[in-house]
Amino acid sequence: MRVGLFITCLADALYPRVGQATVTLLERLGHEVVFPSDQTCCGQMHINTGYVRGARPLVRHHLEVFSASDVDAVVAPSGSCVGSVRHQHAAFFTGASAERAGELAARTYELSEFLVDVLGVTDVGAYYPHRVTYHPTCHSLRLLNVGDKPLRLLGAVRGLDLVELPGASECCGFGGTFAVKNAATSTAMLADKLRHVSETGATVVTAGDSSCLMHIGGGLSRMDGGARAVHLAEILASVEGRDG
After folding, report:
1. Least confident interval from 18-27, 103-112, 171-180
2. Do residues 163 and 200 lie in contact, with contact meaning Cβ atoms separated by under 8 Å?
3. Domain 131-237 has CATH 3.40.50
4. What residues contact residue 32 under an 8 Å CB cut-off, 6+ apart?
5. What does each C-alpha distance from 181 to 42, 79, 187 come to in angstroms?
6. Measured distance between the N- and C-terminal CA atoms of the chain, rounded to whole angstroms
7. CATH label, 2-118, candidates 3.40.50, 2.60.40, 3.30.870, 2.60.120
8. For 154-185, what is each residue's pLDDT tens digit?
9. Which residues pair with 178 in a beta bridge?
């Protein structure tokens, strides 16, 4: 299958290893990965913050770039960005452009749902000998309904000790600009999430969105010992001898 990599802003600017891991994983499974170099921000942050006028050119550009990329599917290591493409982008267009946006949305997938629902695999040949807990991010959980797909993928990783996260469905407090505009509330929500992670005894907390992991990882970095934040793609791309 020919797969287009939708890298997302955070992976491009701050977490390039997440994009590299996504490519490594998909190529290991036998698929050709195409990276449209003209891609930019999809406009998700602007839309969710209410800056619709600023989002419009970004949404249009995303449609043009990926519609012209000649791929069977578009995959992103981000539930929030895929959620925006699938549920928000078509509303910016009318007529034929709206149809094109809908068609692109229908073949745009978050990484775990692409692996499980499209490729039909849960065992990706990964090896990761660590105690891991999983945080289901809000958009992947409530907007995309990925359900237990990430857990099924993690459960098949050799050497991985998967432990349940208490209060897993509770938001970590990031919420994009929510963390900036409502810092006190965000910090309190993060404190609850960090406490739950600590209760698991895990050395790694994982999720499908770099944004939430950035928030959780920042909190963990200010604690003595404890866990570190690692994206799901990095775990699934790991093999024996290179287990992160």
Report:
1. 171-180
2. yes
3. yes
4. 1, 2, 3
5. 22, 22, 11
6. 27
7. 3.40.50
8. 999 999 999 999 999 999 988 888 888 888 99
9. none
Per-residue pLDDT at 176? 81
Read off the amino acid at residue 216: I
Q: Among 219, 205, 123, which Cα is nearest to 173's?
A: 219
Amino acid making up residue 146 = V
Q: What is the mean pLDDT of residues 19-31?
A: 98
Contact 9, 41 (CB under 8 A): yes
Q: How many H helices and E strands in the chain?
A: 13, 8
Residues 144/110, Cβ–Cβ less than 8 Å: yes
- Give 54's DSSP letter: H
Residue with tokens 């698929």: 31
Q: How confident is the model at residue 244 (pLDDT cuts 50, 70, 90)?
A: low
User: Which H or E run includes 149?
Assistant: helix 149-155
Pair 33, 27: CB distance under 8 Å? yes
Q: Between 52-67 and 95-106, two packed helices, what is the crossing angle to 10 degrees?
A: 70
CA dihedral sign of residues 124, 238, 13, 205: positive
Residues of the chain with CATH 3.40.50: 2-118, 131-237
pTM: 0.94
Query: Are 89 and 6 contacting, i.e. CB atoms less than 8 angstroms apart?
Result: no
The mean of the pLDDT values for the chain is: 94
Q: 131-134 and 108-110 as β-strands: parallel, antiparallel, unpaired?
A: unpaired
